[in-house]
UniProtKB/TrEMBL annotation:
Belongs to the HAD-like hydrolase superfamily. CbbY/CbbZ/Gph/YieH family. GO terms for biological process: carbohydrate metabolic process. It comes from the Bacteria. This is Beta-phosphoglucomutase. PANTHER family: FRUCTOSE-1-PHOSPHATE PHOSPHATASE, GLYCEROL-1-PHOSPHATE PHOSPHOHYDROLASE 1-RELATED. Keywords: Magnesium, Metal-binding.
Amino acid sequence: LIKAVIFDLDGVIISTDEYHYLAWKRLADETGLYFDRNMNSALRGVSRLESLNIILSRQGRQMSETDKLQLTDKKNSYYKEYLEHLTPASLTEDTANALTSLRKHGYLLAIGSSSKNARLILDRIGCGTYFDVVVDGNDIKRSKPDPEVFELAAKHLGVFPENCIVAEDSEAGIEAAATCGMRTAAVGYAAKIRCGDWNFDKLSELAKKIV
Ligand code: G6P
Ligand code: MG
């Protein structure tokens, strides 16, 4: 029995893929690192520091932990500049309708995101009030594909993992949810490669399936 839906934020509720791309690209150009859209795709669902580690390892570069911190801080300040473009109008009607319908039918709703900017993003798009629980990158020690973020969300919601379905656009996120015994609904990229138990084009299809 499904009692709760846990949503990844980025790429599910709102896509800021392009902002991540622009911010990493700007940093890479300044630092003499190679970065392209393909690499950006591999960073979905992965924490900021882990993302930099992936970028560095792909070009055999090493860096001190202090330098890494400085670079991830810089990337984040660029990313936050781009986030200024988000407004409540950025939330699609399909997503707003799906969230409203799920709430109306008594589902508990949560966010389970690797991002430390999740609350800022939710505020900017004006949809913080849809969710009973928000667990993000500030609350966890291990980023997806580790299931920590989803396990914590279920715990805060007061439901068992088997009563949750996770909506995700990243492979890492689908793996995280499956690892802790949650059902998975893939959207976006993850749906394209059909790695969810269910694969949807948009969130209203998920809502229709379970209400
Ligand atoms: C999401 C995005 C990733 C991003 C991660 C950390 O999972 O899909 O691309 O790296 O959040 O985001 P942050 O906002 O903390 O840098
Ligand atoms: Mg995502």
